[in-house]
Specification:
Oligomer: heterodimer
Number of strands of chain B: 13
Distance between the termini of chain B: 10 Å
Helix content of chain B: 40-55%
Shape of chain A: elongated
Structural class of chain A: alpha/beta
Radius of gyration of chain A: 41 Å
Order of helices and strands of chain A: HHHHHHHEHEHEHEHEHHEHE
Order of helices and strands of chain B: EHEEHEHEHEHEHHEHEHEHEHEHEHHH
Largest sheet of chain B: 7 strands, parallel
């Protein structure tokens, strides 16, 4: 294969060889009558060609042959006799010819009608198929909704069982008298109270945060950052703290990355496990304290840090810095109070939120705790149709920025 | 410093137009210019990507440049193109004729119609330069009224280097790397892509040449084209090939790479392509290419594969069999495809061509 001419020649030769083989195969298939398996549209003969040929033949007889191979006197005599015979025959066959041509016209019309019907049938079939398809889609959607409802019922059942367990424990205490119950058991019961809101928080997420699909779509923007930091490999796993329903973990899993989720909420843990994700139930600081130094490639937390007070946040950063490998990545996503609607209202829709955290503050805190290359990335602005479009004035632009700009931001930093 | 705005209706990871847009951004960014992407639908987060509504704050000087990617009807884009006073360059990626979508999706018919109307308007605006992915596209825009002296061909920037370095999805490799021969076709599931004919070709190949074979159609299934998808599924069912034809739906780079790795032949039976990126992806992966020579396909494949002028299912099925059974043909065509990619479509070549053409406006 020295040059393009050689390649061209090779391909041309190969095509010739293939054409020959295809012809041979085609003939052998015809012999076996297998060709009927092929779709009709692919057979080449056209019925209109046959009709044209028949019409041409039906009209023959009108012209007189030239007899050019005969001598002139003979030619004159022959032509004269032929003309005479034609005239006689025309009288006899005129009706036959007209009959033939009428039959052909009738054929042509029938075929046109047939083709018209075929076309209409195809159109109706498409409409019918589309209708069926839409119905299928609708029923699929209904199935999905039923499935979601079933899941909600599951969570409620789960929550009910938990509540019953707690009530039984309390009844046991009341029955025995508090002084007779062991200290450990009392501590366990007190700890259980922290799980009171588990099901409620799932209910809140399902109704306010957005569907699983939407969230996954939104989180996709972080995949390139993770890949660039080489996180998620076997020796540099990712830990997602406050993993919730596990949308991010699922994205990471789909991308072939090693990741584990951590959440305190048992119902969330159950949901994640149902999706086949690697998750652990636990309290974040204690969990991090149990990890060795320089053991993680990345730590992520989406809508997590706004749930805690400042002292906890500082302790959390110290632990994360310890467990991250050098050049390890930290991503926190949180509501953006720079957006007036978020800062004044939407933030408080979740009653478990503590305080809004402005981007510049988080940047300073991360830098002061030893993270480098810290960036604040504003994300998730309102849709364009929310924005005022009346004019291009400075005031409407500012208004749109303040009210309909990014609703969240991501704080990204690296361990030096 | 001169400002360059690259405009596109949508920016996301993975589609051919977005790859071209991001390739241009990377190239121009290194030329000491202020470059930004402006789009209406944004699915990529980057500080250099902004809403098209903000473009008037960026393009202020008459020497600034807009590079406008034309691939569909876009009212906001056309407004920008006609209202701003600056240098304007078009990159035309082709618009699918609406006829393919009749009976399947009225929505697509309307979008394509608007696209073709806007193509005529833009071609007659007599802008600074009209770049096209292929000669076929260039002739298309000239026929709508653009001056031939201002029209040039630049292949699109692509993600092949990234794809080649991507780690494959081992789940797919394990699943499909069996004794069966995998035939691959890549492209979104749409009526202009000729998948119905591809299914017929495969049915013939499967029935007469190789029962141990599988057709993989790797591409996004748009819910608005479900009528077409149902039509294809019916066809597959009526041919009893449910177990041998796989529709992957949307896949990521890792999965795409795996499908290329497990496949023996790449087949394209599309009726209309303005360039067809999957062809060069397959050629870069040394997979023999068989294609129906419609629209820009012969130009893209060049001498890198087998092109058939007619969509004769018998001939294409025989070609598949020839490549699968002849080691010589398999390796030769793989090598020919690789040469074609290396000589014409690497990002380095595209970059040089692109810069040499638009250099005078930078």
């Amino acid at each position: 294969m020295d040059g393009s001419n050689d390649i061209k020649k090779y391909i041309e030769d190969l095509k010739k060889k293939i054409r020959k083989k295809a012809k041979a195969y085609s003939e052998s298939k015809t012999d076996k009558n297998n060709v009927t398996d092929l779709p009709l549209s692919l057979k080449k003969n056209n019925i209109y060609d046959y009709l044209d040929l028949a019409e041409k033949n039906a009209k023959i007889g009108i012209g007189v042959p030239s007899f050019s191979n005969l001598s002139v006197p003979k030619r004159i005599i022959y032509r004269w006799i032929t003309k005479f015979l034609f005239k006689v025959l025309k009288v006899i066959t005129i009706n036959q010819r007209q009959f033939n041509l009428s039959i052909l016209d009738t054929f042509r019309m029938s075929i046109d009608d047939y083709n018209g019907l075929k076309l209409r049938f195809a159109e109706s079939k498409t409409q019918f198929d589309t209708g069926i398809m839409e119905q299928k889609l609708r029923s699929k959607q209904q199935n999905l909704e039923t499935c979601e409802l079933r899941k909600t019922v599951d969570y409620l059942k789960y929550s009910l069982v938990q509540s019953e367990q707690r009530i039984n424990s309390i009844l046991e205490i009341i029955g025995k008298g508090a002084e007779k119950v062991s200290r450990n058991k009392l501590q366990n019961i007190t700890a259980e109270i922290n799980h009171n809101l588990d099901s409620f928080y799932v209910f809140l997420e399902d109704n306010l945060r957005g569907s699983r699909r939407e969230i996954k779509k939104r989180l996709q923007i972080y995949l390139p950052i993770i890949k660039k930091a080489n996180a998620g490999l076997k020796n540099s796993p990712i830990l997602d703290i406050g993993c919730g329903r596990g949308e991010w973990l699922e994205l990471l899993k789909d991308a072939g990355l090693n990741a584990r989720g951590l959440d305190f909420n048992r119902v969330m843990i159950k949901i994640c496990k149902e999706h086949g994700l690697d998750v652990v139930e636990g309290e974040v600081l204690s969990f991090l304290k149990g990890l060795p130094d320089n053991s993680l490639g990345a730590v992520t937390g989406f809508h997590f840090i706004e749930h805690f007070n400042f002292e906890f946040f500082i302790k959390l950063l110290e632990e994360i810095l310890r467990v991250l490998k050098p050049a390890g990545l930290l991503i926190f996503e949180t509501p953006n109070p720079g957006n007036i609607l978020v800062g004044s209202c939407n933030f408080y829709v979740d009653p478990t939120h503590n305080k809004p955290l402005p981007g510049p503050l988080i940047k300073l805190v991360l830098e002061s705790r030893g993270f480098s290359k810290v960036k604040i990335m504003p994300i998730n602005p309102y849709r364009d149709d929310f924005k005022i479009k009346d004019d291009d004035s400075e005031i409407s632009k500012r208004f749109n920025d303040h009210f309909y700009g990014p609703q969240d931001y991501a704080a990204v930093g690296y361990k030096i | 410093m001169k400002h360059i705005a690259i405009c596109t209706p949508e920016i996301s990871y993975g589609d051919a137009v977005s790859n071209d847009v991001l390739g241009m951004l990377n190239t121009l960014d290194k030329q000491n210019l202020e470059v930004c992407i402006f789009a209406e639908n944004i699915f990529v987060s980057d500080r250099t990507i902004k809403s098209i509504d903000c473009i008037s704050n960026f393009i202020k000087d008459s020497e600034d440049v807009i590079i406008y990617h034309l691939s569909t009807g876009w009212y906001k884009g056309l407004d920008v193109l006609t209202s701003l006073n600056c240098k304007k360059i078009i990159k035309y990626h082709n618009i699918t004729p609406p006829d393919y979508f009749y009976g399947f999706s009225q929505d697509h018919v309307e979008t394509c119609k608007v696209g073709i109307e806007q193509l005529s308007i833009i071609a007659n605006l007599d802008l600074e330069m009209y770049l096209s992915d292929s000669r076929f596209n260039m002739m298309g825009i000239i026929s709508k009224g653009a001056k031939a002296s201002k029209c040039f061909v630049v292949p699109p920037f692509n993600n092949i280097e990234r794809l080649r370095n991507t780690r494959p999805d081992f789940g797919i490799l394990n699943k499909y790397n069996d004794k069966k021969v995998n035939i691959l076709s890549v492209g979104r599931v749409a009526p202009n892509k000729g998948f119905a004919e591809l299914i017929d070709v495969f049915a013939l190949y499967h029935r007469f040449f190789n029962k141990e074979s599988r057709l993989i159609i790797a591409g996004n299934r748009n819910p608005w084209l479900s009528a077409y998808i149902c039509y294809l599924e019916d066809r597959v069912r009526s041919l009893n090939l449910e177990d041998s034809i796989i529709f992957t739906d949307k896949i990521n780079d890792e999965q795409l790479k795996s499908y290329y790795l497990v496949s023996r032949v790449f087949v394209l039976t599309s009726h209309h392509e303005g360039f067809c990126l999957p062809l060069i992806e397959a050629m870069s992966m040394k997979i023999p290419v068989i294609a129906y020579g419609s629209a820009a396909v012969p130009e893209t494949v060049g001498n890198g594969g087998i092109i058939w002028e007619d969509l004769d299912i018998n001939v294409i099925a025989t070609t598949m069999n020839e490549i699968v059974t002849s080691k010589d043909a398999y390796f030769f065509l793989g090598e020919a495809g690789w040469r074609e990619y290396r000589n014409n479509f690497t990002n380095k070549i595209v970059k040089e061509k692109f810069l040499s053409l638009i250099g005078k406006y930078l």
